[in-house]
Amino acid sequence: MKVLIVSMSTLFIEALQIAIRDRRPTWQVDTYPIQAPLFNQALIKKIKEQCIDIVVVETTNQHFAMIIESLKKLKGPETDIMLLVDSRMGEVYHHLKDEERWASVTKNTSLNEFLILMESFNSNTSHFPEVSLKEVDKKILKDLAVGHTFEFIQRTRGLSAEEIDQSLYRINAYFKVPNYIESISKAFEQKIITY
After folding, report:
1. I need a surface site. Which of 72, 169, 183, 186 has the fewest CB within 10 A?
2. pTM confidence score
């Protein structure tokens, strides 16, 4: 697999490149540091010429909208795009819901889960391994459905950020969707959670 990591942080992309190469030595992992949250023609040319499978774009909340607009120019049928985002998944979902071959992943996802997502990523609907929901997953789903934040859930349920991330991974894998907003919808449809 050919992966290109794009970020305004050189330290971040170099660290992620090393981590991915360590776990997936057969992957070709390249990096591209950008100076501003806009993609130039050189980057677009690199992606197209090198036949990159997945472009991983690290972004911050403050630059998210600009990066999305810049990425839309890059869009092509042969490139999958994964956005690494800080939070505000609702806003991210709003921007990406109509985009094929795009997905978003929170930065506090574990490396192993991130690699599994990359391996299974295909046109904005990942083929997740079969999993079952735990009771804590159902509680987190219900909390998210009523609008509670991750911080609130962490505090009230006594969970760590890593435990919530693992739960979100199981939830999305169970419903076979790329984000928890779609999982909430499916949970209501299947009556796993109710109003």
Report:
1. 72
2. 0.58
**Residue 117 CA, distance from chain mean position:** 8
**Which of 192, 195, 133, 193 lies closest to 168 in space, CA to CA?**
133
Reported as a pLDDT band with limits 50, 70 and 90, residue 157 is very high
Question: What's the pLDDT tens digit per position in 42-59?
Answer: 777 887 788 788 888 887
C-alpha distances out from residue 9 to 6, 37, 42, 71, 81, Å: 9, 11, 18, 18, 18
Q: Name the token pair of 128.
A: 């997740």
Four-point Cα dihedral 164, 86, 77, 75, nearest 10: 160
Q: Which residues contact 182 (CB under 8 A, 6 or more apart)?
A: 93, 172, 175
For the residues 153-175, what does the mean pLDDT come to?
86
Query: Tokens 């956005």 appear where?
Result: 83
Write out the H or E segment, with its range, that includes residue 142: helix 135-145
**Residue whose C-alpha is closest to residue 57's, from 6, 2, 122, 111:** 6
Neighbour tally for 155: CB within 10 Å: 11
Helical (H) or strand (E) element with 57:
strand 54-58
